[in-house]
Design brief:
14 strands; 4 helices; 30% strand; alpha+beta; 2 domains; two-stranded antiparallel sheet
Length: 249
Amino acid sequence: MNSEPLMPQEASAPAGRRSRWEQAAALVAALLLVYLVAAYLAIPFAMERYFRRHPSLDDVPGVTQTRDGHPGDPLNVALIGTEDEVKRLLLASQWRPADPLGLRSDLEIAAATVLKRPYDDAPVSNLYLWGRKEDLAFEQPEGNNPRKRNHVRFWRSEKTDPDGRPVWLGAATYDERVGFSHATGQITHHIDAAVDAERDHLFRDLEATGGFSETYAVDDFHKVREGRNGGGDPWHTDGRLFVGVIAGP
């Protein structure tokens, strides 16, 4: 009776080991492929889209200037959108464009202050960024007291989003009273030192309209977090810049 010789049990071990090594090698190759795709394709693409949609503001000055070059109010807000979109959003949030400076507006705000009557479109003094005065100025009165008001100035920057819409940098501050300038002795509005509170107030109003597609904050926008403006008023901040991307049509 013929019978096949029995194979030693150890003979199948090399094939098993080869199979496990092949599986491990395939797993390592797959992980390496995932890493290469993520590190060299997916993440760079996502970061490029992020930074195109969120333009870098690292080189933007943190504080405006007065006409004679003294520090003004700190920047604390930014909007991304066309000029018409910015105006529509502010109007929808019950903020009104400020009247231009001039003799008529000066007389009107003086009369409003003396008679304690509202002046919803009162002008704001000019501040400067990149060597030019604000492009837009909006305000929101507080009751019938012209001495107190919320207001914001905006400057159009050269930065744009992927759709070519400009970035508008703004300084939002709250006028708490009228008095003599600490720096010049001239009659002026004095701002509340807590400029973050006005930044937060403005963005609450803007967000309530549903007009943003996205909002985010730039942390550590301000390296120096306290100072004085051209009127000698102190201010302090947590260093964050609030950014709102206006929803497109």
